[in-house]
Design a protein that fits this description.
The protein is an alpha/beta fold. The chain contains seven helices and ten strands. The structure holds adenosine-5'-triphosphate (ATP) and magnesium ion. Belongs to the ABC transporter superfamily.
Length: 259
């Protein structure tokens, strides 16, 4: 069975003046267990809207989303979210942020510590357990957010341009970090990005959205072997995928600009 099933999901926003914006055309999309799906598409095509619907933070105008066969009707601990903007609680330390969801669930203190220590080590934040978010760099804040999402052991990780605000070097390091975690844990991931290299490097599937109103116009398999090292980015297979995706995205960006 598919882990996540997006069935005929569309979304039309209506302003208080009655103006309608169709953000998504009906989308059908299946995510299998252990998939790392990246979603590419021009600005404003409905990528965040779709992810927010999967997260249960917004609701579709038509259609439904099933997770493990159950219809999603709101946010839940089975979905871990990481957004572009830093969403840590500023009054909690790194360790407290990571343990927050576990505490809410009433997980015993010893297990909370064990899980937060494990993921703090995974994201390379040992020694920063007692720092507050404002004492961390942007990359470290996003690593904390990823550790927090993973510590809750969600069925799926939903990431909306989580590295979008980072400088290029940090971004590349974060891609390798997340890919390494995925290679070890095989957590199912849906990851929205504008960056074609990023989309190919981490994914086993890239879904390309059309210009608004969004629909999925291509679903492309990435069969590069694992473990992947950054040098894969100069391989002929990578370059070929990149050329193809660049064309797909360019056509949609032009269509979006012509609206
Ligand atoms: N709450 C809202 N109310 C009204 N319109 C909205 C709302 N959220 C999104 N939209 C509209 O829906 C469309 C899709 O927006 P969305 O944020 O999903 O795009 P996106 O693909 O994530 O873009 P970007 O790549 O720039 O982040 C846009 O036209 C946007 O203006
Ligand atoms: Mg967005």
């Amino acid at each position: 069975m598919n882990l996540l099933s997006i069935q005929g999901v569309s979304r039309t926003f209506t302003s208080h003046k009655g103006t309608q914006t169709q953000a998504l055309l009906p989308v059908d999309f299946e995510v299998r267990e252990n998939d790392f799906v990246t979603i590419l598409g021009p600005s404003g095509c409905g990528k965040s809207t779709m992810l927010r619907i999967v997260a249960g933070l917004d609701f579709p105008t038509t259609g439904q989303v099933l997770l493990d066969g159950q219809a999603i009707d709101g946010p839940g601990a089975d979905r871990g979210m990481v957004f572009q903007s830093y969403t840590l609680f500023p009054w909690l330390t790194v360790a407290q942020n990571i343990r927050f969801g576990l505490r809410e669930k009433g997980v015993p203190e010893a297990v909370q510590k064990e899980r937060s220590d494990y993921f703090i080590a995974k994201v390379g934040l040992r020694g920063f357990e007692n720092h507050f978010p404002k004492q961390l760099s942007g990359g470290m804040q996003q690593r904390t957010a990823i550790a927090r999402a993973l510590a809750n052991d969600p069925r799926i990780l939903l990431m909306d341009e989580p590295f979008g605000a980072l400088d290029n070097q940090t971004r590349v390091v974060m891609q390798e970090l997340l890919l390494g975690i995925w290679e070890a844990e095989r957590k199912t991931v849906m990851f929205v990005t504008h960056d074609i290299d990023e989309a190919i490097f981490m994914a086993n599937r890239v879904a390309v959205f059309s210009a608004r109103p969004g629909r999925i116009k291509a679903d492309i398999a990435v069969n590069l072997p694992h473990p992947r090292h950054y040098t894969v980015k100069t391989s002929p297979e990578f370059m070929e995928l990149k050329a193809r995706l660049t064309e797909e995205i360019r056509a949609e960006a032009l269509a979006a600009a012509a609206h």
